[in-house]
Amino acid sequence: MAGYCVRLLRVNLSTGEINKENLDTVLAKKFVGGRGLATYLLSQEIDPGIDPFDSANRIIFATGPLTGSRAPASGRYMVVTKSPLSGTIASSNSGGFWGPELKRAGFDLIIIQGKSDKPCYLSIKNSIVEIKDAEKYWGKLVSEATDMLLEEAQDPKARVLVIGPAGEKLTLLASVMNDKYRAAGRSGVGAVMGSKNLKAIVVRGTGTLAPANLDATKEVLKEVRKKIQENEVTSKGLPTYGTSVLVNVINETGIYPTRNFQQAYFETADKVSGEVLAEKYLVRNVACFGCPIACGRHSSIDGVECEGPEYETLWAYSANCGVDDLAAVIRANNWCNEYGLDTISAGATIACAMEMYEKGIIKPDEIDGPPLKFGSSEAIVEWSRKMGAAEGFGAKLALGSYRLAEEYGVPELSMSVKKLELPAYDPRGAQGQGLQYATSNRGGCHVRGYLISPEVLGLPEQLDRFSLEGKAVWVKAFQDLTAVIDSLGLCLFTSFALGAHDYRDMLNAIAGGDWTTDTLLDAGERIWNLERIFNLKAGVLPEADKLPSRLLEEPIPDGPSKGHVHHLAELLPQYYKERGWDEQGIPSGAKLSQLDIV
Amino acid sequence: MVVEIKLFATFRKGRFKTREMEFSDDSSVDALLKRLEIAQKEVGILLVNGRYASATDKLAPHDVVSIFPSLGGG
Ligand code: SF4
């Protein structure tokens, strides 16, 4: 079956058993691969109610049928587990080169279960799989550990996935890093790796991946490449400025969350924008595997070359912390990459702590670092380091903004949904995006359905961002399509140029099959419902489909979206109805049997 | 009337970042684009006071017009 290796690797770290199993092709087809298939396997193998750090939790590294293929931007894979931060399903996506390498080694996915009694790492050289000692790598920063592991592998072409000290210390904001700088950032997936004493997975594969139909593949890829080349966003906007080109447009729209969402317009945003990054710090563009878009940035500071910062990171540390010092943002981003921390949640947690400090809730004598004042460059850099090292008060911050604010009796100051920090768009000025945040299966996240695209960027068409009309329909459609793209193993940014039928044609040509646009989008809906069921069984109930009260009750005080709040109470029932769920937000039996989910 | 214009990304090259300009009273966005020698098809996002606008919309005194090429990210 082209597109799939039809092989999965199962590693039990408690017993040291390593098994290569055949992939059930019927299941692969039903759940596509990547995010969808891994969610199904996780749902089958664990009780969603368990403690995420229980050795019974699994962590699955999953590619999709197009990962590593000649399809554009096919370097993606997913890390799927139960999240220690949100208690929901976690599926964190990353690019780079690691995913394609795993497939070339002959595996669609790896299921890690159990827990090693000492630090270890997994070495995969085609079919030779070994659990190795990682004592000497434990405690090392991401770039150093990566270099050392590459040296041990004695193969410069090997690809390294690793956690930093944050993951080892079970920091709830810990990411999984691969190829040094690419991050499966969100939901604390790095801490689950840490809880299993698994430092790294080093992969080298030399196999080839042949498409099901070579001629059809050539033809469809010619077509989609042309679309990417002709599209202004994928051929010019993203390559020239990277994702941080968004800073100014989001700010000028008045939805750029500032000082922990107390405002939505940052006066000096232009000093910390993609334009200035390109002018002052950019060294070169970088691309993930097989990607013609090349949105990645390498910047240089203090004589060190590093990746990023991406738009979301730039926002979390600049506007959201009131800092307009780009050099400090780059330094904070570097600490996150080296310690293995999610930059969105880390920056947003510091912003929350700053509001608490300025309001006198956190007292100066409680903290063992720079004053947590909005605008402080020193604070964002040093507190990022301390969070990564889980040092002093940094260890408290490293549990995320919700646990921090709750401990002080002010959970409403955490700008999060389901305990996952919200990203860089104020939903009071983008109603669809707010509905998406509230209903996202992994909590406050923008990449489960990027409504900013129609509501602000005018793609594929311009919607009125303040209007509620039709937004539930758009949110469902975006969530379902995104689940498909994530499961195929392609980068979401391709969707600025491509539509559902393009993904269908690539899948049919490369993996074979008779997918129609409808059956593909049905698969997306199936995956979405499966994730919802996981969350319900995990005890994350529909009451958690909400937004922080600030966004519902306090009108934006200034800027172009002044005076607006989010109207979730009106939108949520429309959304449940659109999804075919009951009024309480529970998927109906009829819906589940229609989607063939038992 | 005086209108404030803000340019972003590639539109800044050879032009400016932000400037106030004088227009006759019933001018539309289109006239502003012509004055700046920006072709309509080059424009990705055009905001007047933070709201999506089109070339035929009329300008009002003290409007803030922000012009971006097509862009995306996330
Ligand atoms: S668009 Fe950017 S993030 Fe996506 S695959 Fe290409 S380089 Fe990587």
Q: How do the strands and helices of this protein lay out in sequence?
A:
The complex is a heterodimer of chains A (598) and B (74).
Chain A: E1 7-12, E2 17-22, H1 25-31, H2 34-45, E3 59-63, E4 77-82, E5 89-94, H3 98-104, E6 109-113, E7 120-125, E8 128-133, H4 142-153, E9 159-162, H5 165-168, E10 176-178, E11 182-184, H6 189-195, E12 198-204, H7 214-230, H8 232-241, H9 246-253, H10 274-280, E13 282-286, E14 296-301, E15 304-307, H11 311-317, H12 326-339, H13 343-358, H14 377-389, H15 393-397, H16 401-407, E16 416-417, E17 420-421, H17 431-439, H18 452-457, H19 471-488, H20 500-511, H21 517-537, H22 549-553, H23 568-579, H24 589-594
Parallel strand pairs in A: 1-6, 7-12
Antiparallel strand pairs in A: 1-2, 3-4, 3-6, 4-5, 7-8, 9-10, 9-12, 10-11, 13-14, 14-15, 16-17
Helix pairs in contact in A: 1-2, 2-19, 2-21, 7-20, 11-13, 12-14, 13-16, 17-19, 17-23, 19-21, 19-23
Chain B: E1 2-7, E2 18-22, H1 29-35, E3 45-48, E4 51-52, E5 64-68
Parallel strand pairs in B: 1-5
Antiparallel strand pairs in B: 1-2, 3-4, 3-5
Bound molecules: iron/sulfur cluster.
Residues 73, 75, 95, 287-288, 291, 293-296, 491, 493 of chain A line the site of iron/sulfur cluster.
From the structure above, extract its key features.
heterodimer, A: 598 residues, alpha+beta, Aldehyde Ferredoxin Oxidoreductase,  A, domain 1, Aldehyde Ferredoxin Oxidoreductase Protein, subunit A, domain 2, Aldehyde Ferredoxin Oxidoreductase Protein, subunit A, domain 3, 3 domains, six-stranded mixed sheet, 24 helices, 17 strands, 40% helix, B: 74 residues, mainly beta, Ubiquitin-like (UB roll), five-stranded mixed sheet, 1 helix, 5 strands, 9% helix, globular, binds iron/sulfur cluster
Q: How would you describe this protein?
A:
The complex is a heterodimer of chains A (598) and B (74). In chain A, helix 12 packs parallel to helix 14 (377-389), helix 19 packs across helix 21 (517-537) and helix 19 crosses helix 23 (568-579). Chain A is globular. In chain A, the strands form four sheets. Chain A has a six-stranded mixed beta sheet, sandwiched between helices. The longest helix of chain A is centred in the last third of the chain and has 21 residues, at 517-537. Chain A is α+β, with helices and mostly antiparallel strands and 598 residues long. Chain B has a single domain (2-69), classed as Beta-grasp domain (Ubiquitin-like (UB roll)), CATH 3.10.20. Helix content of chain B is 9%, strand content 30%. Chain B contains one helix and five strands; from the N terminus they run ββαβββ. In chain B, strands 2-1-5-3-4 form a five-stranded mixed beta sheet, with no helix packed on it. In chain B, strand 3 (45-48) and strand 4 form a beta hairpin. The longest helix of chain B has 7 residues, at 29-35. Chain B starts with a strand and ends in a 6-residue tail after the last strand. The mean pLDDT of chain B is 93. Chains A and B meet through helix 8, helix 9 and helix 18 of A and strand 4 of B. Bound molecules: iron/sulfur cluster (SF4). Iron/sulfur cluster (SF4) is lined by residues 73, 75, 95, 287-288, 291, 293-296, 491, 493 of chain A.
